[in-house]
Amino acid sequence: MRRAREAGFTLLEALAALAVLALLGMGMAALLEGATAARVGASRAVARATVEDALRIPETRLARALPVPRPDGGRALRGTPARLDLVFAPLPERVEEGLRVGRLALHRRGEETLLRWCEGSMPPRGDPLAALADAPCTDLARLPGAARLAYLVDGADGRPRWRDRVGPADPWPRAVRLAWAGALPRLWPLRIRALAACAGGGCP
Fold first, then answer.
1. Pairing assessment for the beta strands 83-88 and 65-66 based on DSSP bridges
2. Is residue 131 assigned to a domain?
3. What is the per-residue pLDDT across 54-78, written as a single tens digit (0 to 9) for each?
C-alpha cells in the first residue's frame, strides 16, 4: 500500500492542485482585462484629443461667419443635418485672401461619421456658395457613431428653437450645434458682424 501511495496523488492533493491552478488562471485573466481596459482608455483619450484638434478648424471659421447677401435675396447660408455652407471673414494672418466660403460636412461610414471641411475663395459675382462645388476638402476626424448638425434660430414668436435645417431666407442662426455619440455636443455661436469691416480684415 505504501508503494501505491508513493506512486500517485490522493484525491485531496489533486483538488488542491486544481484550486491553485484556478486561482492562477483568475489572476492572469484579471491582469489581461486590466491591460485591455488601459489600452482602450488610452485609445479613446487619443481619439478625443484628435477630434478636439480637428474641431479647431471649423470653430475658427464659424466664429468669423458673415451674413453675405445672395443675388436673389437672403443670405449665403445653407444648413442641413449633414452639411453647413457659409461665408466667413479671412483669418487675421490671411487677410489678403479676401472673403472665404466653407463647408462643414458629415459623411456616415459604417459605425463612424467622417468629419470633413472644404474651403475656397468667394467668387466676385453670383452665388457666393457656388465656389464650394470645386473647393478642396480635408478629412478632419472620424466621429464614433452617428453625428448631426442643428441650428438655433428665432421663431415667429421671437423664441429661439433648434432646427435641423436653415436656408437663405431664414433668420441668421444664433448658434450651430454638432452632436455625436458618446460626447457632449459642441456649440458654436454665430455673431452678426459688420460685413464692410470684416471684408477689409477688421474682424476681431
1. antiparallel
2. yes
3. 899 999 999 889 888 888 888 899 9
DSSP string, 47-108: HHHHHHHHHHHHHHHHTTEE-PBPTTSSBSEEEETTEEEEEEPPPGGGGGG-SEEEEEEEEE
Show the domain range for 158. 57-199
Residue-wise DSSP of 1-47: -HHHHHHS--HHHHHHHHHHHHHHHHHHHHHHHHHHHHHHHHHHHHH
**Using one digit for the tens of pLDDT, what is the confidence trace for 82-130?**
999 999 988 877 878 888 999 999 999 888 999 999 999 999 888 999 9
Question: Does residue 31 sit within a domain?
Answer: no
Q: Is residue 30 in a domain?
A: no
Number of domains comprising the chain: 1
Reference 175, options 202, 149, 141, 143; nearest CA is 149
Q: Does 20 reside within a domain? A: no
Pull the grid cell for residue 97: 485672401
How do residues 139-148 score in pLDDT, each as one tens digit?
A: 999 988 899 9
Find where cell 436653415 sits: 166
